[in-house]
Amino acid sequence: MNLITKKHKAKHTMKTYNKSRKLSTQTSFLITLTIALITSISAGLFLQKTYKELTLNFQTLMYQESNMTISSISDDISTIDSIYRLLVSNNTIYDSMESTSTEPSNYSLVEKQMSYVLMLNNVWEKNYIRSVYVFTKTGKEFHLSKDESDLTQTENVAVYQQMLSNSPSLTVFTSTDNHNLYFVRSIYNLATGNIMGTMIITVDENLWINKLTSNIEDGWHIFLYNDAFTMISGYEDPSENEINDLKSALGRYHNSQFKNITFASRNYLTLSNQIDLLNITATVMTPEDQLRSQVYNVLSSYIPVTLLIIVTCIIWSFFISRLTVHPINVMIEKINAISQGDYSKKINGLEKYSEFNELQTAINNMLDQIHSYHDNILEQQLLLKDSEIKTLQSQLNPHFLFNVLNTLTWKAEMTDNSEISQMVIAIGEILRASTIYRTSTTIPLEEELHFVYYYNYLQRMRFEDKIKVIQTIDPGIEHCLIPCFCIQSLIENAYVHGLEPKPSDGTLEITIKKSENFLSITVADDGVGFETIPSFSLDSPVAESKSDTVHSHPHVGLKNLNRRLYLMYGEESQLKIQSIPNIRTEITFKIPLSDRNRLTGDES
After folding, report:
1. Tell me, what's the pLDDT at 88?
2. Which of 15, 16, 29 is nearest to 324 (CA)?
3. What is the pLDDT of residue 599?
4. Any transmembrane segments, and where (predicted)?
């Protein structure tokens, strides 16, 4: 029967292997095809994304350069407007505009002051500012000009005479006879508010535009126009049709955003800004074909590299898929064995595959942990059973013992021997606790401390009050569950191995602190201490042996408690021992408060 079963399993294994090889070829092809498609799609998306990013970068560059140009226009206009404040703030110039004196020396003094003020403030060095004229209401005229020809004076006088109304803010006028711009502003008396005169600043349009366009690309245009769409600057003798086309394309677009327009049979990206100081609009126009040409020039270098990457990825994907299928088959075979309950077979042979080696290690570690958990649970159950058996073997009928102790208490009270009565009561309480919790693994902290109190009382009676006990316990932790008699075990160890051999009085300290995640329990004494700190092996069975002794003492109680803490709470809860012989010895362990099963429920 077994032979037939083995043959059947062998046939089933061979069929599975052949089917696996067939699937391996299909899998390799699918992996190669999938990687090729993913690479091609990724390359296409990369090129598309690159095109968008390059376009955005060039648009951002244009936006920055356009904003810089428009900002430069605003700065220049602010510089022109500052001439008004410079002239009015000069007392000599201001007083001369108010004065009715027409002496030549007065004219000369004012014009020298004008020259001094403008040069001092670096205004006159602007090459596009050609002249500054001041016409007063009293008929006087002061001027400063880089061109002292009669034509310049005539042009400024003509502009002054053409003014139909006062201009409290800076206003610009153009001339069809030349390429000058005239910035005009009325001058007011600071005390009365009456008009004192008019200031006219002449700007050479060509020099100004050349200065503005010196840092931008060839083919770009800059237009300045007012609300009536009267062209102020930026286009050489525009025709009426061209002005109408530009007006229709731009509209009233003053919100600092890109706009696509068609002008003079060419597509442009435009950026417009309102210059509030002069109430005009500045527009920068960039040809779209110039922008696309720059993008394609950069993008063309990416295409050959992208194609090479695609071909390389396809070739590599073929070899990688072949390498990938083999370890997968090994993993499937081993995992199937594990699924059948065979935990003894570990996965091996995949060390040269980095990722599969990690998976192999993880599964093998999982198998080790399963064995370890199984052994720990079995050991804990054996310990509990052994403890119960020993308790049953050693215990007498508790009712009989309680009755005897009650009789002793009554006898002691009848003879007025209160000490014996209290000692009998303490023994009864200890017996009661050991009887009630003999099958439990945990006990409320409050009950453990109640039991410890009577234990310490009996020890103090034994040592005739030579032992001082100090307890420091945080409030609110009375109902936390701890391992049964864990504190008593440490106290017993302190008495037997620390305080009892000490020739003088001693002190025993019990400290229980609550932190965010742990309950910390410390028992300290000033007895003889440990010459060598005992080491407890978690792998060895819990029994007394010579190898575990320290100075010929096995410390079985500490070892059993340490093992119990490890099985219940893990490595972090093991005993921590610190000892300075004849000065101080501390034994500490921690119980995790986050473990709700152990701290809120009653285990038995």
Report:
1. 87
2. 29
3. 45
4. 302-325
CA 586 to CA 576: how far, in whole Å? 8
Integer Cα distance of 125 and 87 in angstroms: 16
Q: Would you say 43 and 306 are in contact if contact means Cβ atoms under 8 Å apart? A: yes
Q: How many CA atoms lie within 13 A of 522 on its CB side?
A: 20
Cα(first)–Cα(last) distance of the chain, in Å?
A: 48
Give the CA distances from residue 48 to residues 41, 295, 310, in Å, rounded to whole numbers and listed in that order: 10, 12, 16
Long-range contacts formed by 17-25: CB under 8 A, 24+ apart: 20/329, 20/332, 24/325, 24/329
Helix residue ranges per DSSP H, 395-499: 398-414, 418-436, 445-462, 486-494
- Tens digits of per-residue pLDDT, 290-345? 777 777 777 777 778 777 877 787 777 777 776 677 777 777 777 777 777 666 66
pLDDT at 65 over 80: no
The predicted structure's pLDDT at residue 94: 87
Out of 2.40.128.50, 2.120.10.80, 3.30.565.10, 3.40.50.620, select the CATH number for domain 437-599: 3.30.565.10
In the numeric block, which tokens belong to residue 200? 């006219």
572 vs 164, higher pLDDT = 572
Q: What is the CATH number of domain 59-297?
A: 3.30.450.20
- Among 20-24, 279-283, 539-543, 590-594, the range with the most confident prediction by mean pLDDT is 590-594
**Sequence ranges of the domains in the chain:** 59-297, 343-394, 437-599
Structure token pair of residue 238 = 């525009």
Q: Is 153 helix (H, G, I), strand (E, B) or coil?
A: helix
Task: Output the CA–CA distances (angstroms, integers) from residue 554 to 390, 396, 564, 590, in the order listed.
Answer: 20, 28, 17, 23
Q: SS in 3 state form for 88-126?
A: HHCHHHHHHHHCCCCCHHHHHHHHHHHHHHHHHCCCCCC
5-63 pLDDT, tens digit each = 444 444 444 444 444 445 455 666 676 777 777 777 877 777 777 778 777 777 777 77
Whole-Å CA distances, 313 to 196, 317, 327, 414, 522: 82, 6, 21, 101, 64
Sign for the pseudo-dihedral over CA of 427, 428, 430, 435: positive
More confident residue, 421 or 87: 87
